[in-house]
Amino acid sequence: MKISVITASYNCAATIADALKSVAEQSHPAVEHVVVD
Hints:
The chain is of the alpha+beta class.
């Protein structure tokens, strides 16, 4: 099963790194991460 995560990144320079790291560290093998500004 593929998991998709969508992150809205409007005016969030202070927290975007934490969000990217959090998704990257997930243990599920099939994660799609879409970041939208």
